[in-house]
């Protein structure tokens, strides 16, 4: 099919290719294949990139998300909508390329099936039809020397012909034609043949309505066939083939014209043959315009149908404009292209280098070294900008380097002369958004752009947290405060399109609704933290209890007045933060949660501060009851101690 299944990230967004750039996002869209709805792709988001159009379903994103490559799109159309009909963008695929061997195999299979289903028993038939002759081409090329009409060879394929394809000479003068001349003749002949017979794959002879090929059982019940020749002669006398090329009337049994040799095309094909030939191409209308998945490609053909994207909440105009720009740029052609050689910098460097310093390396010390370092940096920047703006291809390949250079200049401007102007910041933000470096409000559209922006920001945050290369949650011990995450996220954006605290909190609250692998948690004190979806209060309490049990095995740093092997020792929030990698505030909140909500810990307030112990005081529901075997062993040990044996 034209649509392909895609892989999604942890934030349920499409996995982009190495050089793929996000251009536009729109929600509340559905997909059509031809005139029929795809039942599993009716509520989702569409992502337009420089290479693909991706659809991510909201109900089952891992199963029903599909995409199509822009390189397979031949043309695209826009429909503005009317009344209850939503606006649509139609993507029409390129026709599939089939080899001549595959076409012959399909035609042979269809002819064999037609012959098998034509009569009740072929072996019982009184007449055996001769094998069908090969299709005769009607294309001819006119010799430019003698103006003689020569037939195009039957094995000549216009799609695979090149300069090394052998061409036959003219039958009259013996001069070989040019390849372009034969190509034009073959293409024009193929177009004329397709227009003349749109519903037939091969010329069919006209057969009489009453044929003599009948089963033997039928002949036994019929009258003597004395009148059959008259009926047959009567039908043959009126039927004839008129050549579409020279208008000569030929005998109905002939396949080619007697005058010009052109193929004869029947004008009165029986209705049964027409129905059988068009049964696979005509689909009956269903009560609801929904495509049945079980009937897709029922006839075994691989010809894809057009795909329509229905926009229910707007955004179709921006999508169409950016699709037009992406189809014009065709960035997928640069995906496997080799990098441009950087010979200009080497040539200019060799010209600027003095002849006396070629043998050794210049050593700069002090102020002279700093000046030389600044001069080299300015030269590199000049070469980078010059090579980037040399042409469009080099500019796109060096876009990220140019943005990094612009950000460095912006930081230098801010440090030296105060804040930069609003126009410079707008230009920088627009460049970064066009490169797909950040999620901005420019890539969303439609009436619900605010909610769509927040959902995309939530997905971007989830990807930022679960990225293994960054390791944000891993470095923070699996939990981080929302304020720290906001500062870290804005710092990672490089000062471009900073997110406000209000939008950041709204996006974080959408994680549970979007079923993302992270969640927002609020403590009783009002502190909001971010942690993994699989990390619950129970897992945190178990980790704390396991750590406190380990303290029964290791002696404390200084002598304590109690039995540390039996009771262990208390821990502070600072020690918990160092143990699990949490911040001090998060460690304190987790210890209070284990004490107040779970009852597994108890507190000790003293001169050294607030310490937390395993709860040996509470005899209620949080106290673990000993088994009968443990009680019996305790009684035995108590009796042995009383007798003086221990």
Automatic annotation (TrEMBL):
The keyword Membrane does not apply. It is found in: Cytoplasm; Endosome. GO terms for biological process: protein transport to vacuole involved in ubiquitin-dependent protein catabolic process via the multivesicular body sorting pathway. Gene3D superfamilies: 6.10.140.260, Pleckstrin-homology domain (PH domain)/Phosphotyrosine-binding domain (PTB), Winged helix-like DNA-binding domain superfamily/Winged helix DNA-binding domain, Zn-finger domain of Sec23/24. Residues 198-209 have a biased composition (Low complexity). Keywords: Coiled coil, Cytoplasm, Endosome, Metal-binding, Protein transport, Transport, Zinc, Zinc-finger. This is Vacuolar protein-sorting-associated protein 36. It comes from Fusarium oxysporum f. sp. cubense (strain race 4) (Panama disease fungus).
């Amino acid at each position: 099919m034209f649509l392909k299944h895609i892989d999604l990230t942890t934030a349920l967004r499409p996995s982009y290719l190495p050089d793929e750039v996000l251009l536009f996002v729109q929600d509340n869209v559905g997909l059509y294949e031809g005139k029929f709805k795809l039942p599993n792709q009716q509520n989702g988001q569409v992502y337009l990139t420089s290479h693909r159009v991706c659809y991510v379903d909201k109900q089952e994103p891992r199963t029903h998300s599909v995409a199509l490559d822009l390189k397979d799109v031949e043309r695209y159309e826009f429909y503005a909508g009317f009344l209850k009909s939503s606006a649509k963008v139609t993507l029409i695929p390129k026709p599939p390329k089939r080899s001549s061997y595959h076409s012959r195999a399909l035609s042979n299979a269809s002819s064999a099936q037609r012959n098998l289903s034509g009569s009740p028993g072929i072996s019982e038939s009184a007449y055996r039809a001769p094998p069908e002759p090969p299709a005769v081409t009607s294309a001819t090329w006119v010799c430019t020397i003698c103006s003689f009409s020569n037939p195009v060879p039957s094995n000549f394929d216009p799609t695979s012909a090149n300069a090394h394809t052998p061409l036959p000479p003219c039958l009259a003068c013996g001069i070989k034609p040019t390849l372009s001349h034969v190509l034009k003749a073959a293409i024009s002949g193929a177009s004329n043949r397709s227009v003349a017979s749109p519903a037939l794959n091969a010329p069919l002879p006209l057969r009489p309505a009453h044929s003599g090929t009948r089963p033997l059982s039928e002949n036994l019940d019929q009258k003597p066939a004395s009148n059959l020749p008259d009926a047959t002669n009567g039908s043959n006398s009126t039927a004839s083939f008129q050549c579409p090329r020279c208008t000569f009337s030929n005998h109905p049994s002939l396949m080619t014209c007697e005058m010009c040799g052109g193929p004869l095309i029947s004008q009165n094909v029986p209705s049964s043959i027409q129905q059988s030939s068009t049964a696979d191409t005509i689909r009956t209308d269903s009560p609801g315009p929904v495509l049945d998945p079980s009937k897709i490609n029922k006839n075994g053909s691989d010809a894809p149908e057009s795909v329509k994207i229905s926009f229910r909440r707007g955004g179709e105009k921006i999508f169409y404009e950016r699709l037009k720009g992406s189809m014009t740029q065709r960035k997928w052609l640069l995906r496997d292209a080799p990098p441009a050689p950087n010979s200009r910098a080497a040539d200019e460097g060799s010209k600027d280098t003095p002849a006396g310093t070629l043998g050794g390396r210049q050593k700069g010390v002090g102020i002279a070294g700093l000046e030389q370092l600044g001069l080299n940096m300015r030269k590199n920047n000049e070469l980078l900008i010059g090579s980037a703006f040399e042409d469009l291809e080099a500019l796109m390949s060096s876009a990220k380097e140019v943005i990094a250079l612009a950000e460095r200049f912006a930081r230098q401007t801010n440090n030296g002369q105060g804040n930069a102007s609003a126009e410079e910041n707008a230009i920088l933000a627009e460049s970064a958004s066009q490169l797909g470096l950040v999620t901005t409000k420019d890539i969303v559209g439609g009436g619900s752009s605010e909610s769509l922006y927040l959902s995309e920001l939530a997905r971007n945050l989830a990807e930022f947290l679960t990225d293994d290369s960054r390791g944000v949650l891993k470095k923070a011990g699996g939990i981080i405060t929302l304020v720290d995450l906001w500062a870290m996220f804005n710092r990672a954006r490089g000062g471009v399109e900073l997110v406000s605290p209000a939008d950041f909190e709204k996006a974080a609250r959408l994680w549970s609704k979007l079923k993302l692998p992270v969640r927002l948690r609020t403590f009783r004190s009002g502190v909001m933290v971010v942690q993994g979806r699989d990390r619950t209060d129970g897992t945190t309490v178990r980790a704390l209890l396991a750590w406190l049990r380990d303290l029964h095995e290791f002696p404390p740093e200084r002598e304590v007045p109690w039995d540390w092997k039996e009771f262990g020792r208390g821990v502070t929030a600072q020690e918990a933060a160092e143990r699990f990698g949490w911040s001090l505030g998060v460690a304190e909140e987790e210890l209070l949660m284990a004490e107040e909500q779970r009852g597994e810990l108890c507190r000790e307030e003293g001169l050294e501060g607030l310490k937390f112990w395993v709860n040996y005081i509470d005899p209620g529901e949080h106290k673990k009851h000993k088994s009968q075997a443990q009680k019996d062993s305790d009684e035995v040990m108590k009796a042995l101690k009383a007798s003086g044996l221990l």
